[in-house]
Amino acid sequence: MKVAFTKITWGLIIILIDIHIFVDILPNPIGYYLIYQGVVNLTNQIDGEKKASYLAAILTFISIPSVFIPQNQGDLFLETFSLWSMYPLLLGLLKLVLVFYIFQLMLDISRLAEVSNIHQLTTRLCNSYVILSLLFYIIETFSINFVGNGFNTIKVIVTIVMLIWEIRLLILVNHYKKVKPISLV
To answer: How far is CA 74 from CA 25, 42, 89, 92, 127, in A?
Structure first.
């Protein structure tokens, strides 16, 4: 379990950090591949759902263009609407679904370990993470329709809160390295 959650943690870190100098220094496909390896390891150990591994494998290939296209510059694509202008949003929504499936795996593990406090913490973080992510994408989608600094302030606040929740997710995934399901002990 420790190795699996270490791979998932590093995969999430690589996906979170987006440094582009002509190309992405920490390519997202590598992050998704690490998540894939970690999730496959987990699902083999606890006989869990395979949806997260399938989605991580798909995202490994779908995210290849993100090596060359900066994800944080979606406004540049708004001048001409195309499928590429929707690419960052689509990738973000697929990542949200993947994180949801990872939360479900962690909830299964916490049930098997019979540790109620981490189960409750995971449930609360999952619910708030999904709600905040959807709010972030809704605000991002409608931000092109608003002019002025007021909406930009809201966008910055939601972005900062999302960053905090991403860090909370990393801490929780890292904490799961220590959780041992009773059936595996």
So the answer is: 19, 34, 8, 12, 27
**pTM: predicted TM-score of the whole model, two decimal places:** 0.87
106-135 confidence digits (pLDDT tens): 998 888 887 778 889 999 999 999 999 998
- Pairwise CA distance, residues 33 & 11, whole Å: 7
For the record, the structure tokens of 139 come out as 């605000």
Which structural domain range is residue 121 located in?
2-184
Distance, in Å, from the CA atom of 17 to the CA atom of 116, rounded to the nearest integer, reads 32
> Tens of pLDDT along 95-114?
999 999 999 999 988 888 87
Mean pLDDT of the chain: 84
d(CA 140, CA 79): 16
Task: Tell me how many domains the chain contains.
Answer: 1
